[in-house]
Amino acid sequence: MTPIFAPGQKKAILFDMNGTLMDNHATRKIAFIKTLNEFTARWAGGNDVSPEAVYTLYLKSLRKAKGRAKTDASEINHLREAFSAMPFAVHDGFIRSFLDRFRQIREHSAEPFRNAHKVLKKLSQSYKLAIVTNGSRDRRLRQYRQLAISGFIPEDRLFTPLNGKGRKPDPAFFRHVLRRMGNTPEQCVMVGDSWRKDIIGAIRSGMDAVWINRAKKDMSMTRSGKSTIIIVHRCERLTDLFG
Q1: What's the rounded Cα separation, in Å, for the pair 60 and 80?
Q2: Strand-strand pairing, 188-192 and 220-224
Q3: Cα dihedral 162/166/167/169 (nearest 10)
Q4: The whole model's pTM is what?
Q5: 3-state secondary structure of 180
Q6: Which tens digits make up the pLDDT trace of 136-169?
Q7: ω before 87 within 30° of 0 (cis)?
C-alpha cells in the first residue's frame, strides 16, 4: 500500500507503552507461570501441575469478571478457581502468598509485542521515536529497560508525568513532550491503544494519530478537525503507514 506518512512531512513518532509496545497479556502470563513454578517446586508432586492449564483457568475466571472492579478479594477468587486444577489442596494462605509474589514478579516483568523490535528498527531509520506514557518514572523506566528497546528509542525520549502532574490526555503534557523533542504537532504522529488517553489527547494537541484497536481487523482512516486518525489492529501495520 502507499504510505500515508512520509519523512518529508513527519519527523517523529510518539508511542504509548502499555498495550502498545508492551504486551500486557504476555507479561501477565509469563509472571504467573514463573510464580507458579516457583511455588509448586516446594511440594512433592508439584511437577504434576500443568502451568498452562492453571493459567487458562485463571484467564477464564478473569474474563467472566470483565468490567467489574478489581480488588484483592476478587483476585483471590480468580486464583482459587484457577487452583482447582492443582493435584493437591490449596489453602487461603497459599493463595495470598502466591498473589503477593505474582504481583512482585509481574511488576518487574515486561514483554514486547511480537515483531515490535522489528517495527521499531525500521521506523527508527527514518523517524525520531519516543514514548509518552502515564505512570511513575521508576516503574516505566524499569519496563523500558526490560523491553530492550534503547537501540531504537533512547532513554531521554521516555516521557512520563512530571512530579505527578500533567498526564495523558492533557494537551499540556503533550506540548511539554513536543517542546523537549523540538518538533511541532504537525511533524508528529501519536501511536497508542487508548482512544481517550492517546488518540483524543494527541488530536487535541494538533497531532495526527494511529489507534491500535485489536478488536478491529480492517484498517480504516477518519479525520477530526485538521487531524488524521488511522485505525489498525496490530503494530506490524505501522511499517505500511510510514514511508
Answers
A1: 12
A2: unpaired
A3: -150
A4: 0.89
A5: helix
A6: 999 999 999 999 999 999 999 999 997 656 899 9
A7: no
